[in-house]
Write a structure and sequence with these properties.
Distance between the termini: 38 Å
Mean pLDDT: 85
Order of helices and strands: HHHHHHHHHHHHHHHHHH
Number of helices: 18
Number of domains: 1
CATH topology: Growth Hormone, Chain: A
CATH class: Mainly Alpha
CATH superfamily: MFS general substrate transporter like domains
Length: about 450
């Protein structure tokens, strides 16, 4: 796909596009603050893995079950959440999500048994699942479509900031204040954003009310089945899902659970130094997010090269790290790995930019849910494989981390299979959009 062929029809707003502006930034900011808090809750276990193993008296496989269950719930909720966003709007979904992830984090803080803690993470994952797709939909309602890539990367950037809070602040609080005060403190943040959403968030700007919904047509299983089938039928949706699948999971698994134990137990770093490495991943994520958003907004033809570049570079960094002779890698190799892993999150956001032009606005929530399933499904598989392999091999991290290459190979195969068809259909839609834009503006030119 060439840049010229994929460019949107100029940098003008399309007919009917919302205007954006300061009000849009404020409302979207409220939504992204909810996502920020949700990510703090989601990633808090990443710095507490060793403490959780001691608190609940569990091994590697049982520890990985925490994150597997949470991510599995998250992934399983994506299509239902997408349908809810399309049907109910952003505000109601975000409020429900905030209630659930706040309750889940509070219960986790008070848990003393493994079973109760598992249930708490499941509730947390359910609430977390309602945030990202809802905020993407909010951005599409308040900003012009040409801002789509920057909105996606900007939303993800708030998530990265939440991850940064987990790696820098929570790790310190956990060892100074203790388990219960730390996790209860973060739960209070969820209650705060719930109030903000109730007071300030609106689904769309004045004058841009969506077309009235035919509730009879949008009720029942028939509507749900049509929404999912229509979104899945689009090659752009499936390309977005496999892009998300292949790029996201490596960095997520590292930050969500296994990075800190790997750096401390296998590479011999202190907990402080290992926390610094996790922070480096998060900071690199922020830098790559800003860079990718700017590049793709200006040159849509860079989506596929950037996607494949992230995949190849990540695989190469892991190959270098895991094949280094001797027991421990040099510090520069670990730093390189962490910087490269920082590109995984921004790379996964490209998946939404493949799906967005392939679906009409009223189906964007459902399509985004399908895309978002990809990376979290891969993360579940990787978390499970690493935990099982660690127990089976006596904590051989090199063998356990090598399971990532299998998932990368599967995802890359699907991306290469789908990208030509998706690109051709997108170019056809762009051509139609240009023609419609000319027809809509022609009368104005005549009257002038």
């Amino acid at each position: 796909m060439t840049a010229a062929a994929e460019k949107p029809p100029g940098n003008r707003a399309l007919p009917g596009d919302p205007p954006g502006g300061d009000r849009a930034v404020f409302v979207w900011g409220v939504g992204t603050l909810v996502y920020f808090v949700a990510v703090v809750h989601r990633t808090s276990l990443g710095v507490a893995g060793i403490d959780a193993a001691a608190r609940f008296h569990i091994g590697a496989s049982a520890l990985s079950t925490f994150s597997i269950l949470q991510v599995l719930v998250y992934a399983g909720m994506q299509i239902p959440v997408g349908l809810m966003v399309d049907r109910l709007g952003t505000k109601k979904v975000l409020m429900l999500g905030a209630v659930l992830f706040t309750a889940g984090q509070g219960a986790f803080a008070l848990s003393h048994s493994y079973g109760m803690a598992l249930g708490a993470r499941a509730v947390l994952g359910c609430g977390d699942a309602m945030t990202f797709v809802a905020v993407l939909r909010l951005g599409s309602r308040w900003f012009p479509s040409r801002r789509g890539p920057m909105i996606a990367q900007g939303t993800a950037l708030f998530g990265v900031a939440g991850n940064l809070i987990s790696t820098v602040l929570l790790s310190r609080l956990l060892h100074s204040a203790g388990w219960t005060p730390t996790f209860l403190g973060t739960a209070i943040g969820g209650a705060f954003v719930l109030v903000l959403v109730a007071l300030f968030l609106k689904d769309h700007p004045e004058g841009y009310v969506p077309a009235p919904t035919d509730h009879a047509a949008h009720a029942g299983f028939g509507y749900v089945r049509r929404q999912i089938a229509d979104a899945w039928r689009e090659p752009g949706t499936r390309l977005g899902m496999w892009t998300h699948f292949t790029t996201q999971f490596s960095g997520m698994v590292f930050l969500l659970l296994w990075g800190l134990p790997y750096l401390v137990e296998d590479q011999g770093l202190s907990r402080g130094a290992a926390g610094g490495m996790l922070t480096l991943v998060v900071v690199a994520n922020m830098v790559f997010g800003l860079l990718f958003g700017q590049l793709i907004a200006r040159h849509h033809g860079l989506r596929m090269p950037l996607t494949l570049g992230v995949i190849v570079t990540t695989a190469a960094a892991w190959a270098l790290t895991l094949s280094w002779p001797g027991g421990q890698d040099p510090l520069w190799v670990l730093i390189l790995l962490c910087v490269v892993l920082g590109a995984c999150g921004p790379g996964s956001m490209i998946g939404f930019d493949f799906a967005r032009p392939a679906n009409p606005p009223e189906r964007f929530g459902t399509a985004s849910g399908i895309v978002n399933i990809g990376g979290f499904t891969a993360s579940v598989l990787a978390l499970f494989a690493i935990g099982v392999l660690l127990d089976a091999t006596g904590d051989n991290y090199r063998i356990a981390w090598s399971s990532l290459f299998v998932l990368q190979a599967v995802g890359t195969t699907q991306i290469l299979r789908l990208h030509r068809t998706a690109g051709r259909l997108e170019r056809e839609r762009i051509a139609v959009s240009r023609v419609e834009s000319v027809h809509l503006t022609a009368p104005a030119r005549v009257s002038d």
